[in-house]
Amino acid sequence: MTSIARRQTLRSSGLQPAIILKNICIDRSGSMTSFRGKQYEMTEKLLLDTWNQTRETNVKTKITLKTFDDLVNIMLCEVDPLIEDTPSFQIIRESLCPRGMTRLNDTILESLHELKRSKEKYLSSLSNEVRNLNPKIVQLFVLITDGVDNESSSLKEDVKEKILEFREQGGEALLMTANMDARIIGSEYGFNDDRCLTVHSSDQTAIESGFRSLNTAIRTASTGTRYIGYSQLQREQSLNITPSMVVPIPSLTTLPTLTRQVAGSLSATSMTDFTPPTSPAGVMDFSQPY
Q: From CA 89, how far away is CA 211, in angstroms rounded?
């Protein structure tokens, strides 16, 4: 079966989306300087992979990308990757250069409204016959931020209500944060706990790992299949936590046998003076009574 025939089969069976609507918001407030420019490179890679996926699947896709501080800068507005190219690295860098405050709440609400409007616009363009087939429409909202709101007129509760509504209507919302716990902040805003990832803002390796995990999540969600959330390994890598940082806690599978004779001597001897019996290798031997 050719790739074109396979795509037609998937669409007719309802397994492949009819259209993918993505709205990506990236914080560029002053505190984002902690990323030391790593966000420029990783945003470029994220966009390149999004473009590649669109051209691999040939699914109709509309991408909106905006950066925000106390103002919103729309880099891409419902761009079709099959027609247009990604913005240059220079444009990405200029658009993400840290500055200003954090207009978080209002930006989220505007993005959710844009996704809803785009969906309605697409449905209205279809014939009644096609619309009645209930075509699969993927709506994906992605938010990357490192600070709490300090420049919006709307409240966190307003945002939570709209995000929950967006999710109930089949939308997928992904959150990546730095300088705060993504899962705590995400739950306060209505995100699914599994879709929230915390990244170490000043560790270049962690930032790269975080963006890589986010990109995997975006790729999966773009197929229209249910994303199962970030793994523990992805969470550790996004914070650059290595096994050497974890102190193992020793455990005993068998309790030592305490004889009456030894018990009596312990009552008259300080425990700090007591030395358990050891094997020839110098390992504590709890298999022998003492």
A: 17
How far is 193 from 186, CA to CA, in rounded Å? 7
Query: Could you tell me how far CA 108 lies from the centroid of its own chain?
Result: 16
pLDDT per residue over 27-40, tens digit each? 999 999 999 999 99
| Domains in the chain: ranges and CATH | 15-243 (3.40.50.410), 252-290 (no CATH)
The β-bridge partners of 66 are 25, 74
Asked whether residue 10 carries a pLDDT value surpassing 90, the answer given is: no
**Lateral strand order in the sheet of 137-145:** 72-79, 61-68, 19-27, 137-145, 172-178, 196-199
Model confidence at 51, in pLDDT bands (50, 70, 90)?
very high
pTM: predicted TM-score of the whole model, two decimal places: 0.80
Quote the tokens at residue 149: 């709101």
Residue 126: CB atoms within 10 Å:
14
pLDDT mean over 175-201: 96
Q: Which long-range contacts (CB under 8 A, 24 or more apart) does 193-198 make?
A: 193/229, 194/227, 194/228, 194/229, 194/230, 195/227, 195/229, 195/230, 197/230, 197/234, 197/235, 197/238, 198/235, 198/238, 198/239
Strand, helix or coil for residue 176: strand
